[in-house]
Amino acid sequence: MEIVILALAYPAAIALLFYFVFLRPVQQQNSRRRQELVNLQVGDEVLTQAGFIATVKDIIIPDEGPTEILLELGNGVEVRAFASAIVQRLRPAAPSRDISAADVRKAEP
Q1: What is the pLDDT of residue 24?
Q2: CA distances from 101 to 30, 36, 41, 63, 90 (A)
Q3: What phi-psi label fits residue 31: left (phi over 0), alpha (psi between -120 and 50 degrees) or beta?
Q4: pLDDT of 49 higher than 80
């Protein structure tokens, strides 16, 4: 009977160790990244997957499909990107600036 319990305990212990060492940190990182994207605001400075540092100029939330973000790279150069292209928020928008609901708009059909 002891052999059967030990035979089941070792794989269970390895699975538990695998979860806490590998899976849980990845899940926590993904959760933090999703929360950071939800809190993204106009004026934030962000880093894209392409390595560009840009400022969020507009957030477009369509009825269907992924959220689009208008980014200013500098000197009036603006590009559109999906929210999934944002790796991290480097600097939040200046707190003194009043961000109105007009800054975040719905996409026209």
Answers
A1: 94
A2: 28, 19, 11, 17, 23
A3: alpha
A4: yes
